[in-house]
């Protein structure tokens, strides 16, 4: 079904207002933008585990964090199970020094990373952002979940900005959950079942695991980024990570963002123009075009769940 953007916004705001959640406008803006830019895996469906965590008290209604370490050019934060989307939005909205590194652990799910890197690119900053989450990815040839999908986003200032936003797995876990809810198959070759065999059944894929992009090379790129995340933030890693999708547990994951003032460097926009003309589009261009829509398509199952959440408060307790 298609629903007007404003109507969907109002419904989501009502869900959060009834639960007295801080930053409801920021959260709704994030989920709506995810849908509009083609990131439905990190869009409206993510409000369900957020509300579940709020009602089970594994996610705080109000942002309350602790600065663990801080310098002129860096900050390490323990989010204390605050809402990740609200916290990260606040962090990148402050006056930033010339270049800066932000590291956060123990925040709830922060949505799609391109939301943050795009805003920084529009403000003239280069940014690189990565993190970890609950295990979803198997090592090639195995059937045990070891790593998260290892999200990565890179933003480069231009008009429009270049914004890479992707999982380093063959697909995002949210896309498999979406396929499961819709009752459709997933592409061949992106996931295995519990026996380690390729499957197109999203139910079997969730029992098994997702394959890394690029085989073993991709797996080792992923594990290195996740090690870097844990090393910098002090977060859990691999099978230790909990509370991101299944919010019955508090989150113990981490994220890192490296922010660079582009004025310190060459700002070679000619390279961006050349490559955009050469191949037709660059990362982020498709999402920029999609974002002009005034309607969002969501499946009936998800819409009915939103109505139930609006009708019954609390829903999970």
From TrEMBL:
Pfam families: Ldh_2
UniProt keyword annotations, A-Z: Oxidoreductase
Transmembrane segments: none
Highest taxon, organism lineage: Archaea
One Gene Ontology MF term: oxidoreductase activity
Keyword NADP set for record: no
Matches recorded under InterPro entries: Mal/L-sulf/L-lact_DH-like_ah, Mal/L-sulf/L-lact_DH-like_NADP, Mal/L-sulfo/L-lacto_DH-like_sf, Malate/L-lactate_DH-like
Stated family: Belongs to the LDH2/MDH2 oxidoreductase family.
UniProt-recorded name of the protein: Lactate dehydrogenase
Organism of derivation: Acidianus manzaensis
Lineage: Archaea, Thermoproteota, Thermoprotei, Sulfolobales, Sulfolobaceae
């Amino acid at each position: 079904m298609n629903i007007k953007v404003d109507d969907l916004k109002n419904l989501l705001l009502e869900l959060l207002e009834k639960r007295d959640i801080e930053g409801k406008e920021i959260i709704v803006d994030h989920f709506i933008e995810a849908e509009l830019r083609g990131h439905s895996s990190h869009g409206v469906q993510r409000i369900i585990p957020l509300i579940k965590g709020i009602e089970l008290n594994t996610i705080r209604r109000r942002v309350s964090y602790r600065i663990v370490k801080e310098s002129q050019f860096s900050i390490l934060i323990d989010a204390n199970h605050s809402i990740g989307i609200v916290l990260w939005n606040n962090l990148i909205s402050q006056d930033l020094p010339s270049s800066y590194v932000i590291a956060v652990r123990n925040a709830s799910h922060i949505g799609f990373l391109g939301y943050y890197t795009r805003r920084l690119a529009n403000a003239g900053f280069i940014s690189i952002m990565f993190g970890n989450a609950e295990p979803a990815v198997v090592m090639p040839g195995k059937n045990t979940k070891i790593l998260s999908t290892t999200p990565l986003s890179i933003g480069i200032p231009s008009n429009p900005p270049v914004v890479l936003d992707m999982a380093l797995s063959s697909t995002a876990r949210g896309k498999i959950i979406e396929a499961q809810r819709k009752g459709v198959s997933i592409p061949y070759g992106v996931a295995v079942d519990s026996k380690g065999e390729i499957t197109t059944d999203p139910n079997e894929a969730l029992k098994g695991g997702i394959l890394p992009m690029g085989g073993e090379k991709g797996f080792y790129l992923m594990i290195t980024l996740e090690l870097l995340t844990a090393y910098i933030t002090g977060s859990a890693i691999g099978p230790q990570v909990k509370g991101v999708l299944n919010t019955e547990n508090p989150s113990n994951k981490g994220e890192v963002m490296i922010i660079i003032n582009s004025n310190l460097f060459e700002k070679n926009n000619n390279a961006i123009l050349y490559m955009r003309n050469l191949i037709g589009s660059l990362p982020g261009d498709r999402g920029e075009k999609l974002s002009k829509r005034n309607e969002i398509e969501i499946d009936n199952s998800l819409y009915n769940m939103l109505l139930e959440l609006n009708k019954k408060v609390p829903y999970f307790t």
